[in-house]
Amino acid sequence: MIRVILPAHLRALARVNGEVSFEITGEITQRAVLDALESRYPMLRGTIRDHVTQRRRPYVRFFACEKDLSHQRPDAPLPQAVADGMEPFLVVGAMSGG
Fold first, then answer.
1. Residue 98 has what pLDDT?
2. What is the model's pTM?
3. What is the pLDDT of residues 35-89, one digit of tens each?
4. Rounded Cα distance, 69 and 53, in Å
5. What residue spans define the domains of the chain?
6. Scanning 16, 24, 26, 53, which has its CA 20 to 30 A from the CA of 89?
7. How many CA atoms lie within 13 A of 4 on its CB side?
């Protein structure tokens, strides 16, 4: 069971409370998790990744096991603790300012 924690604005858009969880067959990668998330919650399509390029949107970051995974390849395997459901995959809204 994969566990995903979304930022508050995406939880509101998806109409969920707390973390979401679902099963994924095959290799557990960022792409697989985001594909499953967008399939289950179609209203999130385009909010985390660009519709056309499928690249992570600016100001969206991915974390797991206390590591920033935002710049890893989308098809790189996620940590085993995420695949086992022991640790969540976090989608975080980044901030900037001056």
1. 64
2. 0.91
3. 999 999 999 999 999 989 999 999 999 999 999 999 999 999 999 999 999 999 9
4. 18
5. 2-93
6. 53
7. 31
Cβ atoms of residues 45 and 38 within 8 Å: yes
Q: Tell me, which fold does domain 2-93 have in CATH?
A: Ubiquitin-like (UB roll) (3.10.20)
Q: Name the E strands within 23-83.
A: 60-64, 67-68
DSSP class of residue 80?
A: H
Start-to-end CA span in the chain (Å): 40
Cβ neighbours of 8 (radius 10 Å): 8
| In the chain, % of residues over pLDDT 70 | 99
Residues 89/52, Cβ–Cβ less than 8 Å? no
How far is the C-alpha of 18 from the C-alpha of 28, rounded, in Å? 21
Residue 14, pLDDT score? 96
Which phi and psi angles does 43 have, rounded to 5°? -65, -10
